[in-house]
Specification:
12 helices, globular, disordered N terminus
């Protein structure tokens, strides 16, 4: 009896017609949301890049910088100087290496490990290439020393891609841990980016562009981990069971909320 239930869960052809229809709708909805967010993120990045290349400035930068200057306090500045290090290259690399190692050698989740490694390493290559292309100077009144070009923010892009990849893995593969992990990752991405603008080592548009491209990169690579649209057929059944992955259970939890 248990075997037949498991077979029905992972073999759509054996399920009743209404079950297959519901399963198809769930997959399409998940895939559509992924593509919608990915497309919107790319539009934001391209819009900022076009404005920067055509006018050498981005309109939103000056008013946001004025607001950030007016919001400065000693305590907030000290907090921002601490938080910003969660987006440092060595920290991101350490998180990626440790996370990849745990997924590969402890959890034996090869696809998830490959996804996290590609998300982090690819983000680093994107940052290096785009900074060389745009060659935007950093703001003058920096609160902390920082070298290199500004656009896009490497801290913002790398944290959005790496922590975003971890959040996606938690949300789609580890349902029991997804809420605390996703909340922590989102908080890290937001505070790292805000700290870069607050400390004036980046313009606000640099941060926004980094966030947008980092999110797009993590979403683009998502099929590496679990397949497009959260399709269980893309991952071995044994690995799904080990990850406690159940799309129907996740959908039911979301409906209850």
């Amino acid at each position: 009896m248990v075997a037949s239930v498991d077979q029905e869960r992972h073999d759509p052809k054996s399920a009743p017609p209404m079950h297959r229809l519901h399963d198809l709708w769930t997959r399409l909805r998940a895939a559509s949301l992924r593509w919608l967010v990915l497309f919107a993120s790319l539009v934001v990045f391209l819009r900022l890049a076009w404005e920067l290349r055509s006018a050498s400035i981005v309109k939103l930068d000056l008013p946001v910088q004025r607001w950030l200057q007016a919001s400065r306090t000693e305590g907030l500045t000290a907090a921002m100087e601490t938080v910003t290090h969660f987006g440092d290259g060595p920290v991101i690399a350490t998180v990626a290496v440790v996370g990849t190692g745990l997924l590969l050698f402890v959890g034996h989740h090869r696809r998830s490990a490959a996804y996290l490694a590609l998300a982090a390493s690819g983000a680093g290559l994107l940052v290096a290439g785009l900074k060389a292309v745009f060659a935007r100077d950093r703001p003058i009144d920096r609160l902390v020393p920082e070298m290199g070009f500004a656009f896009p923010s490497g801290h913002s892009l790398a944290s959005a891609a790496t922590y975003g990849a971890i959040a996606l893995l938690a949300a789609t593969r580890f349902p029991k841990l997804r809420l605390p992990i996703v909340a922590t990752c989102v908080l890290l991405v937001l505070t790292v980016g805000l700290s870069r603008a607050y400390l004036f080592v980046h313009y606000p548009s640099d941060v926004l562009a980094g966030w947008a491209l980092g999110v797009a990169w993590a979403l683009w690579l998502k099929p590496v981990a679990i397949g497009p649209g959260m399709r269980p057929s893309e991952v071995p059944v044994a690995e799904l069971a080990q990850d406690d992955f159940d799309p129907e259970a996740l959908a039911a939890q979301d409906a209850e909320r």
